[in-house]
Amino acid sequence: MNFLLVFPKYVEKGKMYDFYFGLSIISSCMKKKGYNVFCLNPNHYEESIEKQLLDSIIKNNIDVLCTGGMSVHYKEINVVLEIAKNIKPNIITIVGGAIVTSNPKVTCWGIKNIDFGVIGEGEETIVELADVIINNKDKSSIKGIAYFKDNEYILTQDRIPIKDLDKVPIPDYEGFEYEEYMKLFSPSENHFFSILDDVRPGYIMASRSCPFNCTFCYHHPLSKYRQRSLDNVFFEIEYLINKYNINYLSISDELFSFDKERMYEFAKRIKKYKLKWWTNFRVSDVDKNILETLRDSGLFMMSYGIESMSNKILKSMKKHITKFQIGNALKLTYEAKINIQGNIILGDLEETEETIKESVDFIESYPEYGVNLVMIRTYPFSQIYKYAVSNRLIKDEFKHMVNGFPLINLTKMSDKKYQEISIYVENFTDENKHINYGNIVDSKIISSFPENIYTLKIKCSKCDQISEYRNMTQKSFRTYFKVICRNCYIHLTVENLKAYRKNYTTVSIITSILVKYFRQQINTNFVAKYIYSMLRDLKHKKLINISNKYV
């Protein structure tokens, strides 16, 4: 039999997307066992996903299609399954990832074109399932799958997660065209990348799961925190350096800092590669010495799980940290000249106007930390999700997923007050008092093909140093974009108009709106808000004269 592993189509060709590890590791496992595996990454091609799937399924005589991903990508995953079944009705479909693992019954009942759901880690499951399909064996003996038999939902025994992660092969980077993926990166795509003029990123996972269980997160009940050996981790890092010449490393662990000795050893070993790198930490796991060691090794950013500056909310979320620990960690990180990435999440069950004020006051008092403000989301099968279902705040679980997990008022505040807060959060980053400014000293166009490419000189409002940023392009007509100061490593908020003034023509603005509408098929409400924001900014800069009532 021939197997086709398909990334969902997240974006049009040339647009950024997240390269997920799941399917690429599954591909490595299947190829290692000798199965006939073909891979398709439709995000790198202009042709429609319908044409790409048709060509691949027919040309390669595909019998089994495998796809999957996160619950938030339901629509993209469902499109792959629908098209595949339309092309070849008897094709067998297998879906894995969080979309199935977190809520298998709802997902498998709701998405009609799933023949098999893989629950939990799929590396061992997929090779066993492939053997069963090929040889027409009894599938009920396979652990960690869901399927239907005689219109009855069957969920087999749980599979124990893999204990020794060193046995898991590295992802099939070539199969899913990682070299093409790297071409999408530029310093302007995300402020994370602005520390380099030429970004060649590598993404790895050095551990799985998390030793904690916050109320807004979900982990499979049997999943335990496990780490790869550093020898195994550096085998993959060296592969990425030798194969793809990476200069930037993102370690996508849920938590990297659980073992302090391992952190020291990692810092010692990574230093010689001269990579810029970052990963996720807990505020309780850092001190001055470890911060200095990590920074010296090439670490430029620490992503912290902050979530709240109210001890009451931190306890409700089961964070097992305090606002003192948060404040201390952020202060030490800032002083060590390491960029801070962190969110405060509003909307916990115990959230009140008073606890919100605690968090907002902190952000306003320390804008140099660059902490973000977002609303909490109820993702399956987190503790807050279970609460929302049991209290009928989510009446239809499948519809909740189809609608993209819209905001739900879990608090005891009125819906009106909750709506006011969510609007405040949406507009939060446009408030000047929360911003560290980067002032444009010089802006030059160095190339005009395929778009205007700039070299920008930006002065940091905190350290007064001027940094030069090359290969910069304008990504939107919003008021601001962000970069990282290359001297003190804080977030800098820069005005688009001052940086890319020569882009502000009638043609370029109208083109931006049309591209966003037709390429991404954004709903009319979003387009209206986007146009309103643009007009407001242009009026503020006195580039247009228009009545407020029209704005």
The average pLDDT is 92
The N- to C-terminal Cα distance equals 60 Å
The CATH architecture designation of the largest domain is Alpha-Beta Barrel
Overall spatial form: globular
How many beta-strand runs? 20
Helix content: 25-40%
Please give the largest β-sheet.
7 strands, mixed
Low-confidence stretches: 547-551
Rg over C-alpha atoms, rounded to the nearest angstrom: 24 Å
The spatial strand order of the largest sheet comes to 2-1-3-4-5-6-7
CATH topology of the largest domain: TIM Barrel
Helix/strand-derived category reads alpha/beta
CATH superfamily of the largest domain: Aldolase class I
Assign the CATH class of the largest domain.
Alpha Beta
Number of helices: 19
Strand content: 15-25%
Q: How many domains in all?
A: 4
Main attributes of the structure:
single chain, 551 residues, alpha/beta, Rossmann fold, TIM Barrel, 4 domains, 7-stranded mixed beta sheet, 6-stranded parallel beta sheet, 35% helix, globular, disordered C terminus
Write up this protein.
There is one protein chain. The protein is of the alpha/beta class and 551 residues long. It folds into 4 domains: 2-155, Cobalamin-binding domain (Rossmann fold, 3-Layer(aba) Sandwich); 185-434, Aldolase class I (TIM Barrel, Alpha-Beta Barrel); 438-501, no CATH class; 506-540. 35% of the residues lie in helices and 19% in strands. It contains 19 helices and 20 strands. The chain has helices spanning 21-32, 49-59, 74-87, 98-101, 104-110, 123-135, 178-182, 230-244, 260-270, 288-296, 311-316, 323-335, 353-365, 383-390, 397-402, 415-426, 496-499, 506-520, 524-540, and strands at residues 2-6, 36-40, 64-68, 92-96, 116-118, 145-149, 152-155, 201-204, 207-208, 226-227, 248-251, 276-281, 299-307, 339-346, 372-375, 438-447, 453-460, 466-472, 480-484, 491-495. The strands form 5 sheets. A 7-stranded mixed β-sheet has the order 2-1-3-4-5-6-7, sandwiched between helices. Helix 3 links the parallel strand 3 and strand 4 (92-96). Helix 1 crosses helix 6 and helix 9 runs parallel beside helix 10. The longest helix is centred in the C-terminal third of the chain and has 17 residues, at 524-540.
